Amino acid sequence: MPRTARTSAAPAATLPTGCTNLKLRQLTRQVSRLYDAEVIASGLKTTQYSLLSHVVALGPVRPSDLAAQMRIEPSTLTRNLQPLIAAGLVEQGPGENARSRLVVATAAGREKRTEARKAWKHAQLSLNETLGTARVVRLHALIDECLDILGTPPEGPPDE
Protein backbone atom coordinates (compact mmCIF):
# COMPACT_ATOMS: atom_id res chain seq x y z
CA MET A 1 0.00 0.00 0.00
CA PRO A 2 1.45 3.38 -0.96
CA ARG A 3 2.28 5.64 1.90
CA THR A 4 0.97 9.19 1.88
CA ALA A 5 3.28 12.15 1.68
CA ARG A 6 3.15 14.29 4.78
CA THR A 7 2.46 17.79 3.64
CA SER A 8 0.77 20.80 5.05
CA ALA A 9 -1.58 22.93 3.03
CA ALA A 10 0.52 24.94 0.62
CA PRO A 11 -0.20 28.58 -0.11
CA ALA A 12 -1.82 29.11 -3.51
CA ALA A 13 1.38 30.66 -4.90
CA THR A 14 3.31 27.40 -4.39
CA LEU A 15 0.75 25.03 -5.89
CA PRO A 16 1.96 23.17 -8.98
CA THR A 17 0.71 24.44 -12.29
CA GLY A 18 0.24 22.31 -15.36
CA CYS A 19 0.08 18.55 -15.65
CA THR A 20 2.72 16.69 -13.67
CA ASN A 21 2.46 13.69 -16.00
CA LEU A 22 3.17 15.90 -19.03
CA LYS A 23 6.14 17.56 -17.33
CA LEU A 24 7.62 14.18 -16.36
CA ARG A 25 7.12 12.85 -19.89
CA GLN A 26 8.78 15.96 -21.37
CA LEU A 27 11.79 15.52 -19.08
CA THR A 28 11.95 11.80 -19.80
CA ARG A 29 11.93 12.39 -23.56
CA GLN A 30 14.75 14.94 -23.33
CA VAL A 31 16.90 12.72 -21.12
CA SER A 32 16.15 9.66 -23.26
CA ARG A 33 17.28 11.50 -26.41
CA LEU A 34 20.62 12.26 -24.78
CA TYR A 35 21.18 8.65 -23.69
CA ASP A 36 19.83 7.17 -26.93
CA ALA A 37 22.23 9.27 -29.00
CA GLU A 38 25.18 7.77 -27.12
CA VAL A 39 24.10 4.17 -26.44
CA ILE A 40 22.84 3.45 -29.97
CA ALA A 41 26.46 3.26 -31.17
CA SER A 42 26.76 -0.01 -29.22
CA GLY A 43 23.87 -1.51 -31.17
CA LEU A 44 21.55 -1.43 -28.16
CA LYS A 45 18.62 0.77 -27.29
CA THR A 46 18.84 2.38 -23.86
CA THR A 47 16.00 0.16 -22.64
CA GLN A 48 17.97 -2.90 -23.78
CA TYR A 49 21.13 -1.61 -22.11
CA SER A 50 19.26 -1.10 -18.84
CA LEU A 51 17.74 -4.57 -18.97
CA LEU A 52 21.05 -6.20 -19.88
CA SER A 53 22.78 -4.32 -17.04
CA HIS A 54 20.23 -5.59 -14.55
CA VAL A 55 20.63 -9.17 -15.81
CA VAL A 56 24.43 -8.92 -15.53
CA ALA A 57 24.19 -7.47 -12.00
CA LEU A 58 21.47 -9.78 -10.69
CA GLY A 59 21.78 -12.94 -12.77
CA PRO A 60 21.05 -15.68 -12.75
CA VAL A 61 17.71 -14.21 -11.75
CA ARG A 62 14.08 -15.28 -11.89
CA PRO A 63 12.07 -13.16 -14.33
CA SER A 64 9.61 -12.17 -11.59
CA ASP A 65 12.46 -10.90 -9.39
CA LEU A 66 14.02 -9.06 -12.33
CA ALA A 67 10.70 -7.37 -13.17
CA ALA A 68 10.20 -6.37 -9.53
CA GLN A 69 13.73 -4.97 -9.27
CA MET A 70 13.23 -2.92 -12.43
CA ARG A 71 9.69 -1.89 -11.41
CA ILE A 72 8.17 -3.10 -14.67
CA GLU A 73 5.32 -5.44 -15.46
CA PRO A 74 6.29 -9.09 -16.04
CA SER A 75 4.68 -8.98 -19.49
CA THR A 76 6.83 -5.96 -20.40
CA LEU A 77 9.92 -7.82 -19.20
CA THR A 78 9.03 -10.87 -21.29
CA ARG A 79 8.56 -8.71 -24.39
CA ASN A 80 11.78 -6.74 -23.78
CA LEU A 81 13.87 -9.87 -23.18
CA GLN A 82 13.03 -11.32 -26.61
CA PRO A 83 15.43 -9.16 -28.69
CA LEU A 84 18.26 -9.79 -26.20
CA ILE A 85 17.62 -13.54 -26.32
CA ALA A 86 17.45 -13.47 -30.13
CA ALA A 87 20.76 -11.59 -30.26
CA GLY A 88 22.39 -14.18 -27.98
CA LEU A 89 23.02 -11.64 -25.22
CA VAL A 90 20.89 -13.35 -22.57
CA GLU A 91 19.52 -16.84 -22.09
CA GLN A 92 16.47 -18.04 -20.26
CA GLY A 93 16.88 -21.50 -18.82
CA PRO A 94 15.48 -23.82 -16.20
CA GLY A 95 15.32 -22.70 -12.58
CA GLU A 96 15.24 -24.56 -9.29
CA ASN A 97 12.16 -26.56 -10.25
CA ALA A 98 10.11 -27.45 -13.33
CA ARG A 99 7.96 -24.32 -13.04
CA SER A 100 10.72 -21.74 -12.58
CA ARG A 101 13.03 -20.09 -15.08
CA LEU A 102 16.27 -18.14 -14.72
CA VAL A 103 17.62 -15.33 -16.88
CA VAL A 104 21.38 -15.04 -17.28
CA ALA A 105 23.69 -12.95 -19.45
CA THR A 106 25.84 -14.83 -21.93
CA ALA A 107 29.54 -14.07 -22.44
CA ALA A 108 28.53 -12.03 -25.51
CA GLY A 109 25.97 -10.20 -23.37
CA ARG A 110 28.55 -9.31 -20.74
CA GLU A 111 30.90 -8.04 -23.47
CA LYS A 112 28.09 -5.99 -25.08
CA ARG A 113 27.18 -4.53 -21.69
CA THR A 114 30.81 -3.48 -21.14
CA GLU A 115 30.89 -1.85 -24.58
CA ALA A 116 27.55 -0.08 -24.07
CA ARG A 117 28.47 1.01 -20.55
CA LYS A 118 31.15 3.32 -21.97
CA ALA A 119 28.52 5.07 -24.09
CA TRP A 120 26.07 5.17 -21.17
CA LYS A 121 28.78 6.66 -18.92
CA HIS A 122 29.46 9.37 -21.48
CA ALA A 123 25.73 10.22 -21.57
CA GLN A 124 25.57 10.23 -17.76
CA LEU A 125 28.56 12.56 -17.44
CA SER A 126 27.10 14.83 -20.12
CA LEU A 127 23.79 15.06 -18.25
CA ASN A 128 25.62 15.71 -14.97
CA GLU A 129 27.59 18.49 -16.62
CA THR A 130 24.53 20.03 -18.25
CA LEU A 131 22.27 19.95 -15.19
CA GLY A 132 24.94 20.06 -12.51
CA THR A 133 25.86 17.07 -10.37
CA ALA A 134 24.17 18.45 -7.25
CA ARG A 135 20.88 18.87 -9.16
CA VAL A 136 21.11 15.32 -10.52
CA VAL A 137 21.70 13.98 -7.00
CA ARG A 138 18.63 15.91 -5.78
CA LEU A 139 16.62 14.63 -8.77
CA HIS A 140 17.55 11.02 -7.97
CA ALA A 141 16.58 11.50 -4.33
CA LEU A 142 13.24 13.09 -5.27
CA ILE A 143 12.47 10.32 -7.77
CA ASP A 144 13.32 7.61 -5.21
CA GLU A 145 11.18 9.34 -2.58
CA CYS A 146 8.23 9.61 -4.99
CA LEU A 147 8.57 5.95 -6.00
CA ASP A 148 8.52 4.95 -2.34
CA ILE A 149 5.42 7.04 -1.69
CA LEU A 150 3.60 5.73 -4.75
CA GLY A 151 4.57 2.13 -3.98
CA THR A 152 4.23 -0.80 -6.33
CA PRO A 153 1.86 -0.05 -9.20
CA PRO A 154 -1.30 -2.15 -9.35
CA GLU A 155 -1.60 -4.67 -12.17
CA GLY A 156 -2.80 -2.85 -15.23
CA PRO A 157 -1.85 -2.15 -18.80
CA PRO A 158 1.81 -2.93 -19.51
CA ASP A 159 4.23 -0.04 -19.26
CA GLU A 160 6.74 0.75 -21.97
Quick description:
This is MarR family transcriptional regulator. This protein is mainly alpha-helical and 160 residues long. It has one domain: Winged helix-like DNA-binding domain superfamily/Winged helix DNA-binding domain (Arc Repressor Mutant, subunit A, Orthogonal Bundle), CATH 1.10.10.
Keyword list:
2 strands, Arc Repressor Mutant, subunit A, two-stranded antiparallel ribbon, mainly alpha, 6% strand, 160 residues, single chain
Your description of this structure?
InterPro entries: HTH_MarR-typ, MarR/SlyA-like, WH-like_DNA-bd_sf, WH_DNA-bd_sf. It holds the Pfam family MarR_2. By secondary structure, the protein is mainly α. The chain is built from 6 helices and 2 strands. The C terminus is likely disordered.
Question: What gross morphology would you assign?
Answer: globular
- Measure the end-to-end span: 23 Å
Question: Helical stretch count?
Answer: 6
What's the CATH architecture?
Orthogonal Bundle
CATH topology: Arc Repressor Mutant, subunit A
| Radius of gyration, taken over Cα atoms and rounded to an integer in Å | 18 Å
Quaternary organisation: single chain
Count of beta strands? 2
Biggest pleated-sheet summary: 2 strands, antiparallel
List the secondary-structure elements in sequence, H or E.
Answer: HHHHEEHH
- The structural domain count equals 1
Overall mean confidence score, pLDDT: 88
CATH class (first level) name:
Mainly Alpha
Helix amount: 55-70%
Broad structural category: mainly alpha
Runs with pLDDT <50, length 5+?
A: 154-160
The proportion of residues in beta strands is 5-15%
Q: Give me the side-by-side strand order of the main sheet.
A: 1-2
CATH superfamily: Winged helix-like DNA-binding domain superfamily/Winged helix DNA-binding domain
InterPro entries: HTH_MarR-typ, MarR/SlyA-like, WH-like_DNA-bd_sf, WH_DNA-bd_sf
Organism: Piscinibacter gummiphilus
GO molecular function: DNA-binding transcription factor activity
Protein name: MarR family transcriptional regulator
